[in-house]
């Protein structure tokens, strides 16, 4: 069960793909684009290469669990992506993933431009890890998030 995770952003979109067993992150990539259609085309290319069984995309929520101000933009992007790929896109709570990604990179000596070019892939990996952990903790009949 291969899962592809997306950390969608205006200028950079992080991608993380699990290994075939759906246990760990096997590949990461960052798409550099302000253009929504180009981002979707790049994700389509990655999907055709990696052939994931599921796609999960980070979804902005406030710390209290309510939807963040960019929620509708993300819902719209997920719907467009789902249509382009012919696959469902599961929205996954991404609270604190970018903050955690910055902390991880800072602790490992990534600063400035080096960190800026990597943080989205790390955030996508954190989204993927959270989703994979959720799937492992659920009975087989409940594996998909809501």
Structure description:
This protein is an alpha/beta fold. It has one domain (3-142): YqgF/RNase H-like domain (Nucleotidyltransferase, domain 5). The chain has five helices and five strands, in the order βββαβαβααα. The protein has helices spanning 36-50, 71-85, 97-107, 112-116, 119-137; strands at 3-7, 12-18, 25-32, 54-59, 89-93. It has a five-stranded mixed β-sheet, sandwiched between helices. Helix 1 crosses helix 2 (71-85) and helix 3 (97-107) crosses helix 5. The radius of gyration is 14 Å and the shape is globular.
Overview features:
146 residues, 21% strand, alpha/beta, five-stranded mixed β-sheet, Nucleotidyltransferase, domain 5, globular
Brief summary:
The chain is of the alpha/beta class. It has five helices and five strands; from the N terminus they run E-E-E-H-E-H-E-H-H-H. It is globular.
Number of strands: 5
User: Architecture in CATH?
Assistant: 2-Layer Sandwich
Helix content: 40-55%
Number of domains: 1
| CATH class group | Alpha Beta
Structural class: alpha/beta
Cα-atom Rg, whole angstroms? 14 Å
Mean pLDDT: 87
In CATH terms, what is the fold-level topology?
Nucleotidyltransferase, domain 5
Shape: globular
The DSSP helix count reads: 5
Main sheet makeup: 5 strands, mixed
Which segments are poorly predicted (pLDDT under 50) over 5 or more consecutive residues?
Answer: none
Largest sheet, spatial ordering of strands: 3-2-1-4-5
Order of helices and strands: EEEHEHEHHH
- CATH homologous superfamily? YqgF/RNase H-like domain
Give the terminus-to-terminus CA distance: 18 Å
């Amino acid at each position: 069960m291969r899962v592809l995770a997306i950390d969608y952003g205006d200028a950079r979109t992080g991608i993380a793909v699990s290994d075939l067993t759906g246990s760990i992150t096997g590949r990461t990539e960052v798409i550099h684009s302000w253009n929504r259609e180009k981002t979707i085309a790049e994700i389509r290319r990655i999907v055709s290469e990696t052939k994931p069984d599921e796609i999960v995309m980070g979804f902005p929520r406030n710390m209290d669990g309510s939807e963040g101000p960019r929620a509708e933009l993300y819902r719209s992007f997920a719907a467009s992506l789902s249509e382009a790929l012919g696959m469902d896109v599961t929205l996954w709570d991404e609270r604190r993933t970018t903050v955690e990604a910055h902390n991880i990179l800072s602790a490992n000596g990534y600063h400035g431009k080096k960190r800026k070019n990597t943080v989205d892939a790390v955030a996508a990996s954190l989204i993927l890890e959270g989703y994979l952990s959720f799937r492992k903790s659920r009975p087989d009949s409940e594996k998909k998030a809501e």
